[in-house]
Amino acid sequence: MDFFGKNVFNDAVMRERLPKNTYKALHKTIDEGLPLQLEVAEVVANAMKDWAIENGATHYTHWFQPMTGFTAEKHDSFISPTSDGKVIMEFSGKELIKGEPDASSFPNGGIRSTFEARGYTAWDCTSPAFLREDAGKVILCIPTAFCSYTGEALDKKTPLLRSMETISKQALRILRLFGNTTAKRVTPTVGAEQEYFLIEKKYHQKRLDLMLTGRTLFGVLPPKGQEMEDHYFGIINERVTAFMQEVNIELWKLGVLAKTQHKEAAPGQYEIAPIFTSTNIATDHNQIIMDTLHKVANRHGLACLLHEKPFAGVNGSGKHNNWSLSTDEGVNLLEPGKTPHENAQFLTFICAVIKAVDEYADLLRASAANSGNDHRLGANEAPPAIISIFLGDELSDIIEQLKNGKPNSSKQGGELTIGVSTLPSLPKDSTDRNRTSPFAFTGNKFEFRMVPSSLSIAGPNVVINTIVAEVLSQMADRLEKAEDFHGELQAILQEIAIHHSRVVFDGNGYSEEWVKEAARRGLPNLSSTVEAISALISEKTIELFKHHGVFSATELHSRYEIYLEQYSKTINIEALTMVDVAKRQILPAVMRYSTELAHSINTIRTADPEAEVLAQRSLLNEISPLLKELSFKTKALQDATCAAKQLHGDAYKQGIYYRDVVFKAMNELRQTADQLEVLVDYDMWPLPSYTKMLFRL
């Protein structure tokens, strides 16, 4: 309690340092979305500057989230020259609300030409400023949006804020129809669980593939993996506990509500989860969490891996995006209550989500697409690439009742008796959980389990907010015109239950039977990023986002181009890294080992011509053709990357080529290299093994 939020310009600090009128005016902007007045910004800027300087800051930065998926910043000092050759510390309202970075080097998908450089950052006053401490230096970080000179969004934050406004507007229309006249805002809230791996930093530095791509491009599974299921929720060793404690302290100082930490399923894998907060702040906090994990790991001689699949054959990492809707009066709109079949308002919002997910499944899948996620979706570690909703026994039964009219009962969980007299009986949930579902209802929220571990959660939440807002808008349009509100509402819910329950599936999402059943139901199965992101520029998507003012057609096409380009560049970097490691590390190491084997054979035969050297000869004969094969496949991969680069004029065609040709060549090269790893002397193999990285921590 002494240091939680100490580095945040939060509500308590503002209440203490701002004049009452300024504080109230700023909160009008934050709470009700009213325009920010420059005179208010001037007072806030001065108070923010004084607070930052008192806490050791000399510089400030507009902290923004460009389309790279990372955060970006440019530091400016508070100093301004005076006429007598000295300086004073200044920070104006204009400097607070607007910055001018060079936008030419950020991905823009054709919105701006390379020689057209100007861009702007704009203060997001709904997300509090904070102080970041780096090596004794303190920086005032001001969360901002980032747009081009022509006004298009070049970042993750701007569309997110737009989507939050549109879902608030449409949800309020529904609430007014239910008689709520006092709520002023509906906010989507998120809690994002973050999975990650930790390995020794010294091993990370010896692996070019991990350093450049975030994942191992070569490597044989260790004799023991996760089959004993002893890592999940296991005891956390002292070194990792110390790391986690420092992570928590760093996050708590920044007001990040880090709550849960535990071992995950795979060896070396862990998870951290914060408490729910509004979506834009949760997005900022998740970026801070990822940055903090890297920074603190480095201090402890560790490397944090956020790639979705850093180790082939080992469970990968995701990010569970827990999403809900809350009013400014503290009411969770996805809270079913004790009798959800009688809770018409709850059923309205649940049905809106069901219809939204069914109608925009391809868009939801696209929001969770990147090259790393292609390695894990559909495996027995993550949801399948098929979008479906898990509702559980209680809600699924209510949806079935809705098909036939008004529901009249809810399944109750009752009590769970464990059978030991000293243990208490537990209230039993009316619904089990389903870890194989991409979009699961978990009590009073939906858990989107498909989000990649390295991805910003802004994109998925922009989609969820907007598609649900669209359905709420359709509902409100009908209900506002209806003479019989309850009759029309019943008709709407029944229509959704009949026509959109195909997306509801409570079974095993990993099974082959579900893949066939999903195809029979007509659900899309977009297994790769290149396929998935085409949904961004469909007429349906463009009309959706344009109607709600979240994206223009230009902004959507730019993101389509950016994501395709990022996919191709990622695969290209991985391919070139494989070629480099194969040529300069693996091939020489295998040659040296082969030479040692040959010398061993010759030495033994010289000493004793009758001595048995069958084992050595057999091993050499096994290695020699694989060595030739490795050289051949390295050249084939190199040729494939050269051919792929020639397709730069067509981003989609190039992406398909990288997926179908280059990636295949990468897998073939890896297969040969991994065969050699199990033959070459352990100490002569140039790359730290999976065994070392996963179990020596």
Descriptive overview:
Keywords: Ligase. One of its GO terms (biological process) is glutamine biosynthetic process. GO terms for molecular function: glutamine synthetase activity. It comes from Desulfitobacterium hafniense DP7. The protein is of the alpha+beta class. The chain folds into three domains: about 10-155, Roll (Ubiquitin-like (UB roll)), CATH 3.10.20; about 160-215 and about 230-410 and about 425-515, Creatine Kinase, Chain A, domain 2; about 565-695, Four Helix Bundle (Hemerythrin (Met), subunit A). The protein contains 21 helices and 19 strands. The strands form four sheets. Strands 9, 10, 11, 12, 13, 14, 15, 18 and 19 form a nine-stranded mixed sheet that branches. Strands 1, 2, 5, 6, 7 and 8 form a six-stranded mixed sheet that branches. The mean pLDDT is about 90.
